[in-house]
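Input (structure):
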C-alpha cells in the first residue's frame, strides 16, 4: 500500500511538530512548511495527497493559500486548521475550496485521524472514478474508429 503524503503548513513550531509526530506515527509521509510561499513552492515541486493549512500564516491568510492551491493542485485535499474558529472563517474556507475544517487544539486525536482518513478515502474513490471514465472514453473512441474503418 502506498504511503500517503501530507503537507503541514503551520508557523507555530510546537503545533507543527506535534502534527508531524502524530501523522508519522500513523504511517504517513509528512513534509512541513512554515509560510504560504514555502507551501506553494513545495506543492509545485512535490505531490501531496493532503494539506493541513493553518488559517493564520506569517505571509498570508490560509484562505488566500487555499485559493492558490485550488488552482495549482486541485486534487489535493485541503483542510483548514484554526485556533480561531468562527462561522465567518469556516464559510470563507469552504467557499475558497477547503475540503475540511479542524479546530485547534486537537482534543480527540482519533477523531482528527478519522477525518483525515475519510478525506483520503474520498480522494481515492474520486481518482478511481476518473480513471474508470477515461478508460470508458478510450474504449468508446476505439469502437468508433473501428466502425469508421469498416
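Output (sequence):
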Amino acid at each position: 500500500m502506498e504511503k500517503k503524503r501530507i503537507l503541514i503548513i503551520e508557523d507555530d513550531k510546537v503545533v507543527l511538530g506535534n502534527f508531524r509526530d502524530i501523522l508519522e506515527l500513523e504511517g504517513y509521509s509528512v513534509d512541513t512548511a512554515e509560510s504560504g510561499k514555502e507551501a506553494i513552492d513545495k506543492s509545485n515541486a512535490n505531490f501531496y495527497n493532503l494539506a493541513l493549512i493553518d488559517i493564520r500564516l506569517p505571509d498570508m491568510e490560509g484562505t488566500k493559500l487555499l485559493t492558490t492551491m485550488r488552482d495549482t493542485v486541485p486534487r489535493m485535499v485541503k483542510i483548514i486548521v484554526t485556533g480561531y474558529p468562527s462561522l465567518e472563517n469556516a464559510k470563507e474556507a469552504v467557499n475558497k475550496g477547503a475540503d475540511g475544517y479542524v479546530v485547534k487544539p486537537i482534543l480527540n486525536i482519533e477523531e482528527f485521524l478519522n477525518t483525515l482518513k475519510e478525506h483520503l478515502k474520498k480522494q481515492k474513490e474520486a481518482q478511481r472514478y476518473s480513471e474508470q471514465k477515461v478508460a470508458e472514453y478510450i474504449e468508446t473512441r476505439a469502437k468508433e474508429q473501428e466502425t469508421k474503418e469498416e
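Notes: The two ends are 44 Å apart (CA to CA). The chain has a mean pLDDT of 88.
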